[in-house]
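Database export, one record per block. Field names are fixed; values are copied verbatim from the stored entry.
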Amino acid sequence: MSASTATEAAPVKTVQLEGKVIVITGANRGIGLGIADCCLSNGAQRVYSVDIGETGEEFAEVSARYPGKIFSLQADVTKEASIQAAVDKIIEDAGAIHGMVCNAGRTKHKPALDFTTEEIDQLWGVNLYGSFYSARVAARAFIKLGVKGSIVFTASMASYRPNKRVPSAPYGASKAGVRNMVHTLAMEWAQYNIRVNSVSPGLVKTAMTYWVPQQPDWEQQLKYYGGIPRLAEVEELGGAYVYLLSDAASYTTSIDIPVNGVIGIC
């Protein structure tokens, strides 16, 4: 038995986040806040939301359930220096960082011929540049701290196929770029014991999808597309993120987990 084998820790058999400090971009509300809630319910020591906006009632409710465990820092993910400053503050405050969820994103659905350059820049600025900068800042921190870190991107089912009802070529392209980025970064950073994966949500019940079940033919759509006949609750995504952030996934890298209820609408 080699020395490296003898000192190698035994594989972790339970999916939990005990003692871990998790950073989630765009977690003041919506999917990000749902991920934060799930991380805390699975034992995370602290969760930090890095968001350009202010917190609201939803964030306050989660904070009340986990006093002293969830925090929010303001930063602009499209500016790497802004993300760097936030992560530096988190490490100063918590002493470490073990996981980064690159979740902040924008969406806009309209015909490709109608998109303005400004709208495309806004989508790609947050979804692509913001995700890349957040991941790179986290990787540098993991390497410096000697942490076997985990990075999880929020991709989308739109990266696999277009939403037929409300298409968005720039949005789908940005999320397909995220999934491709996952494979390359996983390959590059494996030497540092950093794992890189993604989760692709389908239709999730958030402020951005309120209109979906209000369509007059929504029930007919569900019958046509099949699958679980409803939108996902944000908390139903959490298990995928928790697994990928946990030490139980120590040999899991470069994958995407679709959480779509088999609905073929997008």
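Remark 1: The CA atoms of residues 183 and 221 lie 34 Å apart.
Remark 2: Residues 14-259 form a domain with the Rossmann fold fold (CATH 3.40.50.720).
End of record.
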